[in-house]
Amino acid sequence: MRNSLAIARKEFKSYLTSPMAYVVTGIFLVLTGVFFAISSSTYLETSIGGFLQSGSIVLLLLAAVLTMRLIAEERKLGTMELLLTAPVRDSEIILGKFLGSLGILTVMLALTFYYPLLLMIFGDPDMGAIGTGYLGIFLLGTTCLAIGLFASTLTSNQIVSAVVAGGILFALWFIGVAANYLPEKLGEVINYFSLSYYFPDFVRGIIDTRGLIYYLSITALFLFLAIRSLENSRWS
Amino acid sequence: MIRVKNLTKYYGKRLAVDNISFSVEKGEIVGFLGPNAAGKTTTMRILTGFLAPTQGEAWVAGYNVMSHSLEARQHIGYFAESVPLYTDMTVRSYLEFLASLRGLDKNRIKTRIEDVVEICNLQEYIDVIIGKLSKGFRQRVGVAQTIIHEPEVLIMDEPTIGIDPIQVAMTRKLIKELSKERTILLSTHILPEVSMTCERVIIIHQGRIIAEDRIENLSSMVAGSKRIQLEVEGPSQKVTERLRQIKGVVRVRYDGSRYTVEYPAGQDLRSQITQAIVRSGWTLLSLESIEMSLEDIFLKLTTEEETNQ
Known about the structure:
With about 240 residues, chain A is mainly alpha-helical. Chain A has helices at about 1-15, 20-40, 50-65, 70-75, 80-85, 90-110, 115-120, 125-155, 160-180, 185-190, 200-205, 210-230. The radius of gyration of chain A is 18 Å and the shape is globular.
């Protein structure tokens, strides 16, 4: 764990010294800010639903971009050799990288806290729904980062990593949409695997345990796959 | 300190290391010599846990590099050929990061950074971003990283490639100093480097060890014969003939100014040769024996290997 934290700290710092994190956070804030403003003024509602709905899609893209360098860059620069020959477990490397990117996600979401703050000043929002909404988008983000990190272990090319991550993320998101066109039973089963299926509940203020379990287990699954993929590189 | 047993590594179908075994004792400094793509880096990567062997086993500091990889890695300082560095970090934060990964606590990290920075002459550059350093300084940062946790075993893959001669000399001196208390396996394809720094050589070629001995022994082993060079005042044909008649002489060559006489190692024919020349009424101007250089050994071994195939 100590090693993971050291790696996470280093990763977080290198996010802050490269322009990538700033660009990503900037885009996230601009896009979600616009949707937040449009939805609150158009529907005259005191909720952050507009921000969350648009934010979720934006997050899929940005997570792929944020995570693409995590392992791929180390492979490209050869610094993977440093990490893999240090007395550190492969799982600690992956966990450290994951926590580092999670730090950026947390900062990114924390910077949106002024949306609910505005609502509180100018209206009387449902704080419960705001809380669950943030929980939902944080869980979704966590899952996206794990998938992106896994994609990054597959290649030494950051672009390939981002494309693969984007592919997996959008596939998992849109099978939920496709499921509506399938026979009812099959559609329902497919829905259970979709990233987008549980998200609206969180936005509405409901904490669905199935949703919690889904996001956490997909995160765990892809972190596990990332560890295996890293181990695999020793056997090349 | 390092023990390798029947190690084999395939990359897909390509055989990189072919059933090699060797060991390095505590305190020894061993040169790992071979042409490019001989399997040096692969062997070192297996020892450091970066790669898994296809077959065979290896131990470092008493720990099996596969089953007790973390413990083994804890005792190794590894200087990788590509000098992997995080170019967006300062020298200090880079060293801090690697020291903490190797389990050093905060205070220890601080004192060790001071130590290694002094050893590697990096004082002025400690807070400079690594990406802005020149190749030679990056090399030093790489060395600093290798020794920061005071490992018992140093595995250094071509540590003097691509730096200027002054730095090369510095690095060699540093390696010599480090070797007083540590076990070092040093790979290189620069031959003088080995004779300057190492006590023993392992020569690897096409994935196999083709020779392994102390440098002195190696030259006589490979040579199998002793060679001396003569300068004689006299008719060359007759001199050549007379030299050939001496008992034990295997071969005599005349290159226009000097005669090279070859005879089996372990004998000393120098007095017979001088006497023969003097008695024939010629004058012996000079006589010297020729040591086989590491270069000769290396070429002889690697080319023999190829002709055998």
